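Review form for a predicted model. The reviewer records the input and the model, then writes brief findings.
Reviewer: anonymous (R2)
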Amino acid sequence: MAITTTTQGIKPGICLSTARPTNPYLGMIIFETDTQKMKVWLGSAWSSGYTHASNLSVEYLVVAGGGAGGGWAGAGGGAGGFRTNVVGATSGANSVAEPSLLLSTGTYTVTIGAGGGPQTNGSNSVFGSITSVGGGQGSGLNAGAAGINAAPGGSGGGGSWQYAGANGIAGAGTAGQGFAGGGPVTWVNTGTHPAAGGGGAGEVGVLPANSSATVSGRGGNGIQSSIDGTTYFYAGGGGAGAHAGATGGAGGLGGGGGGNGPASGAGGGSARNAGASGSAGGAGGANTGGGGGAGPAGAGLNGGTGGSGIVIVRYLTSAGSPFTVTGGTKTISGLYTIHTFTSSGSLVIA
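Model under review:
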């Protein structure tokens, strides 16, 4: 066939990879609709072919910023929302992994949610159409000794003892992203006033043993992810604070900050960045979505800040070969190419 300026293109034979021509001739070209590969008969075998995919199948982890811990021996902050579609993994609130995601060429915005400052929720993290909700602040007192209620979020802030207008009710979590905080804790004038931990992606915030306990509730644990080839917990709740003679609650696994008391609660470990201990209200771990730990008893003292969020995207390196993909920190682990975002940016598929 002569190729001229009016030629509309050359149409190869179309078939499945399991139903190729039985008597091919040298140079014959086929397109396999199931593998999306163009192949040529080399005389004794088909060429390995080149993939002509129009969409890239990606897996993601999107974790939002954690909420702040409550002030003045209050409750722990809730973890940021946790969403993933990694096959076989557990998504937030111990739900099944989300559906597969096919992306065409284009630019996909990535926003990394900041951890909540004093008396504030964490901020949302976003990857394209996927949004994880920031964690809820824990209840307690603010620097002006006014009562602050727990807030809902990806995971909810914990409930404290009921005082100075605070109702002590825990904040709710978001379906498919995280659990509620623990609480409320009934006021008993024992001097210890234990509070409850903030909710985590994998567990409700933990209550103290009773209203007179000398150890406050720990943050709810987060969920493990191995999307980047290393297994970490993410999105642990913050530990609660305590009064005289009591111990602050530990942060939940996944970067939850430890609650402050005369004996501070440890920060939640096994995370990308462990949460801080409860000195003055431990901060949630950076890029974990961990909730902040509650602050110590005393005027002018607030809870710890929540940990910032993270977005990680991966795809089979072989599937990405027809595309140029940029954005974040790009690494290779096993069969996968991984893009890790610890600050806002864009994933570009060209």
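Findings: The chain has a mean pLDDT of 89.
Further findings: The radius of gyration is 26 Å.
Recommendation: see findings above.
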